[in-house]
Amino acid sequence: MARSHKIFSPKSFWLRFSIPAVLGTGAIGAAFVYPGIASGSTPTLAAATPSAVLAMALAPSAKVYSGSVNETGNLGLPTSLLSSLGSQGSLGVSGLLAQALGGSVSANFWTDHAGNARVQVPTSDGEIDLYASPSALWEWNSASNTATSLSLGTSATTSTGSTSATSGLTPAQIADAIISKLPAGATMSLAVGQYVAGQPAYTLVLNANDPKSLIGNVSVAVDANSGNVLGVWVYPVGSSSAAFSSLYSSVSFVAPSSSVFAFSPPSGATVKTLSLPSFTLPSFTSSTMTSNAGGAYSHSSFGSGFSTVEVIKSPTGSFSFTSNPTFASILASGTSVTTAMGSGTVISMSLGTVFIGNDGVLAFGAVPSSVLIGDLG
């Protein structure tokens, strides 16, 4: 099984696990679709079947090279954690995008599909950019005039920069994560078409039919011309209001100029180097994940489809969720429990449950707390 290194730090954890990997198996909360982006007018579309539209989404005929994406959500996260995520200067691009779990975030991205990518998140006082290539990672904060070289250490590489940098950002990546976790009993249908980012799109509705999951259905806007996923809306069981949305406000199928990806610290900027720990994460298909700090992150899972519960345990002494400020800030709002995997705190949210163990165990799933605790034993 091929393995690729992914950046792992407590500050970027919510982005990398809660959005791309967990949308099909983790916690999403009540939210609202951005007005004015999905147009109220209805396009005239060629007749199609749900399975044909799904096939288009899985194999688009054109590549998206850049776009502006709006994400919104409300996990029901504790105020203390949302305040922590709001510390823009310390969290950078990952932290800003993670704010979409409890609010709204807009971001621009560019990729050449050859390992180069750039993500730009506008802020109230400037912008924060992540420049990624197969050999380097830079983060630029215009407000603080600071350029940070992000190093993954000698045992890791940036791998495919364009994939890692935009992880969890584009509607297609989120839709792929969801589709890969569709329950065996899921059904598909087509709703009224719509315009997204000016493009005519089919509306594919995926009904979960998973009695153990809090996810009811997912709507996916699929470009009628190119087959690209232009928007994703996640609905909780029994709700007609979208619980999470990610959709384009603009999109381009033209490769950007190489100058878009070029970056060097400007004169007078503060230049820093930050070494980030990393581990190999082979798409949750392996039982272990190797830490470059030594030891292995063990992984196990329970259930299937949208009711899957993922469990990750850090190497002994390498990382404690409860000692990290970002995670510790949410514990006060949870419930203390004891399971076969140790004691910890369960955080129940509007569309999922998280268990934070006292000894480095983390479990999460788009399930009620009773299902998650039952899986942990």
Detailed description of the structure:
The chain is α+β, with helices and mostly antiparallel strands and 377 residues long. It has two domains: 5-272, outer membrane lipoprotein receptor (LolB), chain A (Clam); 278-376, no CATH class. 17% of the residues lie in helices and 37% in strands. It has eight helices and 22 strands. The protein has a 13-stranded mixed beta sheet with strand order 2-9-10-11-12-13-3-4-5-6-7-8-14. It is flat, with a radius of gyration of 20 Å.
What pattern of helices and strands is seen along the backbone? EHEHEHHEEEEEHHEEEEEEEEEEHEEEEH
- Mean model confidence by pLDDT: 76
Largest sheet: 13 strands, mixed
Outline: flat
| Helix percentage | 10-25%
Strand proportion, as a percent range, falls in 35-45%
Task: Assign the CATH topology of the largest domain.
Answer: outer membrane lipoprotein receptor (LolB), chain A
What is the straight-line distance between the termini?
Answer: 30 Å
Q: Report strand order across the widest sheet.
A: 2-9-10-11-12-13-3-4-5-6-7-8-14
| Level-1 CATH class name of the largest domain | Mainly Beta
What is the secondary structure topology, with strand pairs?
Blueprint: E1 5-7, H1 13-21, E2 38-39, H2 50-58, E3 66-73, H3 79-85, H4 88-98, E4 104-111, E5 117-123, E6 126-132, E7 137-141, E8 146-151, H5 161-165, H6 171-179, E9 187-196, E10 199-207, E11 215-223, E12 229-236, E13 244-252, E14 270-275, E15 278-280, E16 288-290, E17 296-302, E18 309-313, H7 325-331, E19 335-339, E20 342-349, E21 352-357, E22 361-365, H8 369-376
Parallel strand pairs: 8-14
Antiparallel strand pairs: 1-15, 2-9, 3-4, 3-13, 4-5, 5-6, 6-7, 7-8, 9-10, 10-11, 11-12, 12-13, 16-17, 17-18, 18-22, 19-20, 20-21, 21-22
Helix pairs in contact: 1-4, 3-7
